[in-house]
Amino acid sequence: MDGGTAPNAVAAVSEGRLWDRLMAMARIGGFTTEEGDQGVNRPCLSALDREARRLLIGWAQAAGASVSVDPAANLFLRWEGTDPSLPPVLTGSHMDSQPHGGRFDGIYGVLAGLEAIEALAAAGVRPKRAIEVVAWTNEEGGRFAPGCTGSMSFTGFKPMSAFDDITDVEGIRYADALAEQHAEEADLPRRPLGYRPHAFIEAHIEQGPRLEAEGQEIGVVTGIQGSRWFTVTVEGRTDHAGTAPLSLRRDAVQDAVRAIAALNVLMHDPSDVLRFTVGSITTEPGTSNTVARKVVFTIDFRHPDEGVVRARGDAIPGVVQAALKTCTARVHERFTAMPVDFGPTVPEAVARAAAAQGLKAIRLPSGAFHDAQFLVPVCPTGMIFIPCRAGVSHHPSEYAEPVACANGARVLTQALLDLAGT
Ligand code: HGY
Ligand code: MN
Ligand code: MN
Question: What is residue 324's predicted lDDT score, i.e. its pLDDT?
């Protein structure tokens, strides 16, 4: 790529087309809350997911990209380069949302990648390396926990079979949902699982308040904090709520409350850097006049320091066991992602592109996890953040301005060309 093509390609990024596509995608699984917020509930490997993928595929093919799917159902849009023998530069994000999610988390990075392809097509640019846009399967982990199963399969971080028997709330297995996705998309070309990209860049909303609060237009992401997910199953015995003396009960709810209270002590952080969330609690049998025999609750624990992630995470099972009075408990870890640092290569390309376009930029780490986390061992990796309103995400009021979305797509286009020429 000679220097003359980047401004043409960057200028060909269309704010209007990108925004219209974001809003079109938001209607697939879209809902309106009582407060008037426009939310999205688009589970992975669902009919809604396939409807969104079909819409994306139509746009991509019209732009001149080829389309293919790998065994993990990761969807790839490819813009050919002049030397097809070279590993491509990869960009992209995810199309699945949280159940009570927003219109930008994930899908923005996929559509910003498509917008980069549109811009290259409009500017008549064929970089040395092909550019591929990926829509990773199941980043959120909302329907099938944990998240990032598509990118973990692609990079070999975990064998794809490790996820086979994960079930959703209806008891549907991940492997069966994947098979249904492949059957419904049997007309799409296939590709093998995994390859070593030349580099990977993911564009995403910040999902935090810093860029907006500091008046910055672009986040040059330096890395991602560590995350560990656990499920805790507390088991007691059902009893009659009206007759069983409290002294004789084995009440799973009471012991779960004790365990969560003890975990709050373990996870106390006066500097408010540590993140500890119990996002789901289910009880069985779940009636008001029967003492619960079983409680399952989830733990999402995060911190930027690997020592803290390991030490406090490893302490969880012991703290739970020590807190129990009458019940037993099993603690299962289902997601372990240590902090990652993106290093210099991709962040420098992002910083160069932002500077060349006169956009105010800062370097910052990501509090949210992303598929990029799993590309770090495989190739030079980085992310581009754009500001989102009040830093809110995983909520229907999640919002990013059209100009911010376009800024991110322009920086992505230039950084992709920079990396695709090396
Ligand atoms: O949970 C996360 O950090 C991501 O948004 N799925
Ligand atoms: Mn996301
Ligand atoms: Mn998310």
Answer: 98
Angle value at C-alpha 17, between 112 and 383, nearest 5 degrees: 10
Please write the tens of the pLDDT for every residue from 71-84. Answer: 999 999 999 999 99
Cβ–ligand 1 distance for 29 under 6 Å, the answer no
Angle at 68 between CA 62 and CA 73, to 5 degrees: 125
Phi, psi of 274, rounded to the nearest 5 degrees: -70, 145
Q: How close is the Cα of 393 to the center of ligand 2, in Å?
A: 9
The span from the CA of 218 to the CA of 272, in Å, is 25
User: Per CATH, which fold does 227-337 belong to?
Assistant: Alpha-Beta Plaits (3.30.70)
Task: Give the mean model confidence (pLDDT) for residues 133-147.
Answer: 97
Summary mean pLDDT of the chain: 97
CA of 234 to the centre of ligand 2 (A): 31
Which residues, in sequence order, are CB contacts of 34 under 8 Å at separation 6+?
Answer: none
For residues 231 and 316, the answer to whether their CB atoms sit within 8 Å is no
pLDDT at position 421 is: 87
Torsion over CA: 365, 369, 371, 377 (sign): positive
pLDDT band at 5 (very low <50, low <70, confident <90, very high): low
Burial 8-22 (b: 16+ CB within 10 A, else e): ebbebbbbebbbebb
CB 6 within 8 Å of CB 355: no
- Amino acid at site 238: T
The CATH number fitting domain 7-225+339-420, selected from 3.90.1300.10, 3.90.1150.10, 3.30.300.30, 3.40.630.10: 3.40.630.10
- Where are the chain's structural domains? 7-225+339-420, 227-337
DSSP letter string, 178-201: HHHHHHHTTTSPB--S----SEEE
Nearest-Å Rg of the Cα atoms of the chain is 23
Atom of ligand 1 nearest to the CA of 394: 5
Atom in ligand 1 nearest the alpha carbon of residue 139: 6
